[in-house]
Amino acid sequence: MLHRFSKLVVAATILLLLAGSLVTSTGSGLSVPDWPTTYGQNMFTFPPSKWVGGIFYEHGHRLIASTVGFLTIILAAWLWVAEPRRWMKWLGVAALGSVILQGVLGGLTVLFFLPTTISSAHAGLAEIFFCMTVAIALFTSPTWLAERNAFDDPTLRRVATATTIAIYAQIIVGAVMRHSDAGLAIPDFPWMFGHVIPDHWDAKIAIHFAHRLGALIVVLSVIATSAHVWYHHRDRPELTRPATLIVVLVMAQVTLGALTVLSQRDVWINSVHLVCGALVLATSIVVTLRTWHVRIGQTVRLNPQTTTESPLRNVRLQADPDIRLRADHGSRA
Predict the structure, then answer these.
(1) Cystine design at 137: which of 6, 51, 95, 275 (Cβ 3.0–4.6 Å)?
(2) Are residues 153 and 129 in the same domain?
(3) Concatenated DSSP letters for 198-261?
(4) In this structure, are 195 and 267 located in the same domain?
(5) Domain end: 140, 174, 198, which one?
(6) CATH (domain of 245)
């Protein structure tokens, strides 16, 4: 049940990411100019009749964020009460702390009129929180709790970890690009001003170019990770499934990125591009955490049948040979 609820939190967070991307894509970030109120009213009682234009996107984003925050409170409390692994309890607390900080950053973004630094930090923390919810869902899944699924492949661990870091760095560059209005600084694709490398530069062009270069690095990293999985662990569906999925997602992500430029930043293409990037990161996180399974280790889950057993049940006593010999003579007698 806990695993199912954690997956619900993941799904709600995906919806929140989509809502946040729509706020940016539609330029609705200041449609509601105050925080935490909405035009001076409690945001939970703000009448739907006034949800018009950009207010619909910004106010809707706040309501979805509040829902995710409430679900995270339940998840953190549930983990603290029911989860025997101490580090899982604190992971739940960390997720709750990050969603609270995320709300504060969102408020500061409005109060300080959408500064690039705070807006980008808001986007970056959103991805971290999303990864936390994915990790909790993974750590509470039956396949993770089955210790037989643990394996040790240091090479895959290094490659997968590097891939996840590259994807997150790419997302941060993308966030800076979005919030510095550099999404169309290079208006053509796949060329850049008709060249392989831009023939002139400014700050926005540099950010946009870094994002395209980062995309190439991510594609190569994902291919390396997935190829290693397919070649060395093809008998492990818990690895091959996400390894296949991430390749599909990266192909979709590159296509969406190209269409974002060619469509002059169509609202829905641009927004789905952000969500797809988050799914790429989440899938990479799953692969990476599975490579660390053997290092993270397992804490034995106690149940009512095992809690009353003697703690000495697994202790082996080595008897003295002479004692065993005397015992044998006594039994024959």
Answers:
(1) 6
(2) no
(3) -SS--HHHHHHHHHHHHHHHHHHHHHHHHHHHHHH-TT-HHHHHHHHHHHHHHHHHHHHHHHHH
(4) yes
(5) 140
(6) 1.20.120
